Amino acid sequence: MRKDITSSVWGALGLVNLSFCCYSAYSYQNFDVAVYCRAQEVRQMAEPNWLEPRWNEISRQVKVGKVYLETHRDTVLVDEETINKARKFFESKGVKVAGGITYTISESNRFETFCYTNPQHRKKVKEIAEYTARLFDEVILDDFFFTNCKCELCIKAKGDKSWTQFRLKLMEEAARELVIKPAKAVNPKVKMVIKYPNWYEHFQGLGYNLEAEPKLFDGLYTGTETRDPVRSQQHLQQYQSYLIFRYLENVKPGGNGGGWVDTGGSLYMDRYAEQLWLTLFAKAPEITLFDFRQMLRPTRQSGRAAWQGTQTSFDFDEMLKPIQLEDGTTVKPSTIARAAGYTFEKVDRFLGKLANPVGVKSYKPYHSTGEDFLHNYLGMCGIAMDIVPEFPADANIIFLTESAKFDKQIVDKIKGQLMKGKTVVITSGLLKALQGKGIEDIVELEYTDKKAVITDFMVGWGGIRQSESQIVIPQIKYLTNDSWEEVSCLASGIGYPIFHSADYANSKLYVLTIPDNFGDLYNFPAEVLTRIKEVLMRDIYVRVESPSQVALFVYDNDTFIVESFLPNSVDVRIVTDKRISKLRDVLSDEVLTGETLSGQWRWGRGAGVEKIVFDTQIKPHSYRLFQCE
Ligand SMILES: [Zn+2]
Description:
alpha/beta, nine-stranded mixed beta sheet, eight-stranded parallel barrel, 16 helices, binds zinc ion
């Protein structure tokens, strides 16, 4: 049961005392926690002397209400007797049990998947689905329900189609005929869930069909692990742990069952915790910890980051404090499971205060790609994002990246918004893609093949602001007095548009120049980001003026979270609509009183627009939750 916790109950729970009862007496108020068990571990679970101590180790550090028992991975198929013994064990503890399938041949061989044209492989896929559905009423497919096979059979079957076209069709058919139909035939009440990984820009190329499959499956699930943004192969930005959950929720409203995080790639322990709480900030009803084995990884002092000891959101030392169980015994935290448990206890105290997340609508057509993962960089710059798979014609402001080019009617749709007096912001990447394809009917801009190396920016008629390092941008040319530089950059006496506007019908089209390296968005001076936010977030009651890597999570009940991913404390200015006069920091109870800024409040812009500002600070890798008063 989920319910809001009143502040008086918070006091009773104690903000410092982290003792907790066993899960049967107390589970989290606002979400459920599951642990995924790979086939390699499940097959050992028939042996109580193996399972019991390990389960005790995990479950006394984090409250687990559910386990997924995997039947297959890497050709390891767990026998029925073992599954039944494991199931009995968990059910005797009051833990819910569901099934899992990983359709891999060999993960270690670059995630070798099944071949869905090979008759023998197809037979095996079907058998595994039937076997698992017979044992469980809920079955989740882990990350690997795609194909990277390029065997001779697949090459022949592909014919003249692209690999993307071929695989999308192939996997849709496999989902229907080899997984769902056979599973439902043996167990009509089985709930089949497809989990999508974190590489959402590239799903289509490997046959992960985000358009067809969510309609076929009973539910979907979201990989929200982002790991280290720099020292990893994927380079996913932290904000994605939030945004991908929202995106997939928009793909199947009400059908996104949860977020899923593993322990990999967290060079400091806060990074692991961030992924968990960002998943929950996105309102995931369940969070799956991958996996049983990883939960037993010993806690290492090397995970204690440089900013520890300054009361940041993830307090490493507090996390390691002994915990008292319901029976009075005291347990010393030993493994990473405690980092999860500690994080969940902290955020569970306030998650009930968050209503529906809101953000700037950005349309990403199904099976599209282009300026891959860019939305997350903007999220890291403090722009609350919301990716949707259908064109959001009702939105007053729409943001479009290059991926929107996959909609052949996109120019007409942009025109339609501008005719209705609504605002559209496109990236330079989309401008390039639509050049010669109708965008010039709105405004004649030229995305050239020339580059500029810049450090200096000019916002309106204001002073010069500098980035800390050089940034390479594409040069966009425009016609004097036909369109206007809102933000310019300067190099050797010449300027180029960074944020550009053009009148059309009853509104404006804006073009945001994206640096060649998206990471250089983080080097944009705060004043530049502010001007972009003033346009993109005009309809949202709050925004934050700050350097990049400070994110904002906004909810439709006058509640919002400001989170910094910076290694040092940062000054932020929170700017709200004028109806808001005070902000209450829900975690500290501190009340901030705002100041009114009105009239000619910045470089001649904003005349007549009254805003309230609150100046405060955010600690390293920390969040603050505010309620407007
Ligand atoms: Zn093949």
